[in-house]
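HUMAN:
Just now I want nothing more than another pair of eyes on a protein record. I would be glad if you read both lines and explained how they fit together. I have put the entry right below:
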Amino acid sequence: MSEFVIEEIRPEFGAEIRGLDLHDTLKEEDRRRLHEAFDNRGALLFRDVEVTAEDQMALAGILVGGDVPSDRSGLDRFAHLYPTNVSNRDENGNAPYGSLLFHSDMMWSESPMELLSLYGIDVEQPSVPTIFCSATDAWVRLPDDVRSRIEGLSAMHVTGQQQRGGNTEELLNPIRRETRSTTKPVGFPHPRTGRTILYVSQMMTSEIVGLPPDESEELLETLFSYLYDPDHLWQHDWREGDLVLWDNLALQHARPTVSLEGPARTLRKVIAPVLGKSVTGAETPRFSKVG
């Protein structure tokens, strides 16, 4: 077993991993410790590491897909390398400018991906952070009276970014070939850990099904006050050589405005699917300004 260290980032979620060589094929006990840390902490951070796309894919596959072959063949069974970087410098960079409200990627899908990971390829300072919250921790923190209000209720999630009052950021809007939506319980069980997720988000939740619009939005804002409580957020300030992998179902993420003229911010993205489903050929959304 490698003597790597797992250090808590926040009391609620997040762990930094130090002293682990990601180029090597990890031993069974190391994989078990990482898998356990990922399930318990929701996000793993590696700092100042040189990581290839293959390393990043292999680690993503280990965390949600089980054993990875020793020769790392067939990695697309577990993880998928996005064809474009998240970048304000690359000619075809994904999400190159603007801000993103809190969300889980593909929340509008029946099968959203289970893991997201970003690696800092080219990051100039001061960097624009990624901000995380835990939707499983938020569920635990809900008062009994709020939980009783949402018992048996479902929410609808749609593509794009919802316009919500009070936001002054320059929003990005994903452009897809078709508008898609799904409806899931507000208290949604995590398919891997079984923990209950407070499954609503600023960006993609359009309504609480069956409620009048004003009541739906009032209830959503109440839920958002627990999800996005500033005392329970983790702000990750990027630098080159950072690798963050997080549970896309249990956690949500957001970012302030990125500018095309601002410091370079190029991040390599790898995803892993729910319950080992293949994601090869997944659509990469393009973006435009909203408002």
About this structure: Residues 5-275 form a domain with the Double-stranded beta-helix fold (CATH 3.60.130.10). Helices lie at 28-41, 53-65, 135-141, 144-150, 213-227.
